[in-house]
């Protein structure tokens, strides 16, 4: 290598290829049903797709859109926050459009974290969090969600103990991927109290905000004193089933938005111009759209969860998101989720993702495996049949 050094920056050397790329390639190679990566197998509303076509044909967004996002979308995002959560944001100074929530997380951490800063994240965590903290030069401090009574729970005492003088911010994800946990009002109030007491920033990834089956989604920014210190992140992909469009956003105070914008402008700068106009229309869909989305996914959650339980898995039925976490130990002799997932396509033609890759403490996640239920009902039924056959053979 040049000058005796590896080519890849040492901050990223530990990450390699994402588990999603590996398992999706395995699904293609084996012709398996892919319940690993979280993307729907049908498109979202036809009227929103047609809105994108109209924008393309009208020349709206075909050239560089404004850096913060097109005004129509920023206004719609502010309207969405007001309509659903009674949170008021100025679309001109408190909304920033990004290339999906992943870029929003990256730009936010690059803007707010300096080398030596500690970032607390709930473990297991979406894999890009670790890479983004590393790129910013920060130190990741995991606080583990632990299985309890069929769900995964946050230990607030453990969270409080994780805060040190070097803690810069807490990175929250609720509804939580991969466990499906939805933090309660009491838990969020305790987190808000901690942030105020220790003068911490909080970044909240709320991309599954409309996919809640039990409980309710409450933005942390709605708690007293938190609007000024919270960067709220969401996106269109999960809600409207257009994950390939990569239209995300942040809402925050002008000072926080300006900080994130300073980093974001040197990443994608802008993206998805015509799609931004379509997402603006999507955010104004009636309440019936959100009700039907939630009810349809709840039914598919139950179909897959019941099938996995019948196949012998231990099932942690999620309160939100479109993932169900399972425990493979009840299958007998199974302990290593990574090995299990790599072998599963050949054994029964289904792909899942091992939760261990979302943990710093790999042993905590070793027996857990995540399945996605954002698929057609017939696909889920076939997957369940294959998994039951796997259990029946004892292989």
Automatic annotation (TrEMBL):
Cofactor(s) needed for function:
pyridoxal 5'-phosphate
| Keywords recorded for this protein, A-Z | Amino-acid biosynthesis, Aminotransferase, Cytoplasm, Pyridoxal phosphate, Transferase
InterPro entries listed in its UniProt record: Aminotransferase_I/II_large, Kynurenine-oxoglutarate_AT, PyrdxlP-dep_Trfase, PyrdxlP-dep_Trfase_major, PyrdxlP-dep_Trfase_small
Q: Where are the transmembrane segments?
A: none
**Which EC class heads this enzyme's classification?**
transferase
Q: Which GO terms describe its molecular function?
A: kynurenine-oxoglutarate transaminase activity; pyridoxal phosphate binding; succinyldiaminopimelate transaminase activity
Query: Which SUPFAM superfamilies does the entry link to?
Result: PLP-dependent transferases (SSF53383)
Q: Where in the cell is it found?
A: Cytoplasm
Pfam families documented for this protein: Aminotran_1_2
List the catalysed reactions.
N-succinyl-(2S,6S)-2,6-diaminopimelate + 2-oxoglutarate = (S)-2-succinylamino-6-oxoheptanedioate + L-glutamate
* Entry's family note: Belongs to the class-III pyridoxal-phosphate-dependent aminotransferase family.
How this chain assembles, per its entry, is: Homodimer.
From the Swiss-Prot or TrEMBL record, give the protein name. Answer: Probable N-succinyldiaminopimelate aminotransferase DapC
What organism is this sequence from? Streptomyces halstedii
């Amino acid at each position: 290598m040049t000058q005796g050094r590896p080519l890849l920056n040492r901050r990223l050397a530990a990450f390699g290829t994402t588990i999603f790329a590996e398992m999706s390639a395995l699904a293609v190679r084996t012709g398996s049903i892919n319940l690993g990566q979280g993307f729907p197998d049908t498109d979202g509303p036809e009227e929103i797709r047609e809105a994108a076509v109209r924008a393309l044909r009208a020349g709206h967004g075909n050239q560089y859109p404004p850096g913060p996002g097109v005004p129509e979308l920023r206004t719609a995002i502010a309207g969405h926050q007001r309509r659903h959560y009674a949170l008021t944001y100025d679309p001109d100074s408190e909304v920033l459009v990004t290339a999906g929530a992943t870029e929003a997380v990256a730009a936010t951490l690059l803007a707010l974290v300096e080398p030596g800063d500690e970032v607390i994240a709930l473990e297991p965590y979406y894999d890009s969090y670790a890479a983004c903290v590393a790129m910013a030069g920060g130190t990741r401090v995991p606080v583990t969600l632990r299985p309890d009574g069929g769900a995964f729970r946050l230990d607030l005492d453990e969270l409080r103990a994780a805060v040190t003088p070097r803690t810069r911010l807490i990175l929250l994800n609720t509804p939580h991927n991969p466990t499906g946990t939805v933090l309660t009002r009491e838990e969020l109030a305790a987190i808000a109290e901690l942030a105020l007491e220790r003068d911490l920033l909080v970044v909240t990834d709320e991309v599954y905000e409309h996919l809640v089956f039990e409980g309710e989604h409450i933005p942390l920014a709605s708690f007293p004193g938190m609007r000024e210190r919270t960067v709220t992140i969401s996106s269109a992909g999960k809600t409207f089933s257009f994950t390939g469009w990569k239209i995300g956003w942040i809402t925050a105070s002008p000072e926080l938005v300006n900080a994130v914008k300073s980093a974001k402008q040197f990443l994608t700068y802008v993206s998805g111009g015509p799609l931004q106009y379509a997402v603006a229309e999507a955010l104004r869909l009636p309440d019936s759209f959100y009700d039907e989305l939630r009810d349809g996914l709840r039914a598919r959650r139950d179909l897959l969860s019941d099938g996995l339980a019948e196949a012998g898995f231990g099932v942690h039925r999620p309160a939100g998101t479109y993932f169900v976490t399972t425990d493979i130990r009840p299958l007998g002799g199974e302990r290593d989720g990574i090995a299990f997932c790599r072998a599963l396509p050949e054994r029964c033609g289904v792909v899942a993702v091992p939760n261990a890759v979302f943990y710093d403490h790999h042993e905590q996640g070793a027996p857990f495996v995540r399945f996605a239920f954002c698929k057609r009902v017939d696909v889920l039924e076939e997957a369940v049949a294959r998994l039951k056959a796997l259990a029946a053979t004892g292989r």
